[in-house]
Amino acid sequence: MAFSAPAFAAPIVLTPGTSDSFSWSGGIGPINSPADGYQITVGGGGAIIDVVDCCIIGDRFEITFDDGTSPFTIPTSAIQAGDDGVSSGAFTIEQALADSRLSKAAVSLSTGTWDIDIEVVDLASGSTRGSKGGRQTSFWADVDTAPRAHMQKAFTQRRQQIVGDCHQLRLDVDHYNDLRPDEEPIQLILDFTEDVEELLTAEGVEDAA
Q1: Are residue 130 and residue 174 in the same domain, yes or no?
Q2: Which partner for 99 in 12, 90, 136, 199 could form a disulfide, CB atoms 3.0-4.6 Å apart?
Q3: Is the domain of 136 the same as that of 159?
Q4: What is the pLDDT of residue 164?
């Protein structure tokens, strides 16, 4: 599902069939509109967020996602030097996502409220700005109809975020225990199989054993 954002950051409920464009002027740096970026509230099941350049090839971005606990930054993909400044002929989100020459990123977000900020890190040759009237650069989220390749990549990224959180948690627990050798060490279990099954059972997704 795609979504539409207001001019300033505010919670956005993801709904199917809508999209939004952001714009900038003055070259590399944060986008100008929406000036405060986006804030997205993601419901159960998560969401796939796609950010894709459009029309003139060469613009690249870094997108920062922050839920208040585990911020991370994702760059959009690199482009081929020979394509820089060339018109792609892709003028819709679907066309832009299907065009491998355009810079893009697909990110899986878990349930929660996320602040999203976008920064321009590379510009198409001969250009200093992008706008809805010129180069339309789109922000698109798809939960139900994303292609398998997007879903696989996004799920892998989400799993790596979880691994990173578990790694840091393990380091913190080990450090705490090392500082208190005379106390019983805190035990940390990182096998979540039973926890996940209990949640699925409680939600009625799976029957109790």
Answers
A1: no
A2: 90
A3: no
A4: 78
The per-residue pLDDT for range 39-85, each reduced to its tens digit, is: 788 777 777 888 888 888 999 999 999 999 889 999 999 999 899 98
Model confidence band, residue 203 (pLDDT cutoffs 50, 70, 90): confident
pLDDT tens readout for residues 92-115: 777 888 899 999 988 888 888 888
CA distance 116 to 145: 22
Does one domain contain both 127 and 180? Answer: no
What is the residue type of 9? A
Number of domains in the chain: 2
Structural domain that includes position 44: 11-146
Whether 202 contacts 178, CB under 8 Å? no
207 belongs to a structural domain = no
Work out the percent of the chain whose per-residue pLDDT is above 90: 24
Q: 58 vs 15, which has greater pLDDT?
A: 58
Say if CB 78 and CB 70 are below 8 A apart.
no
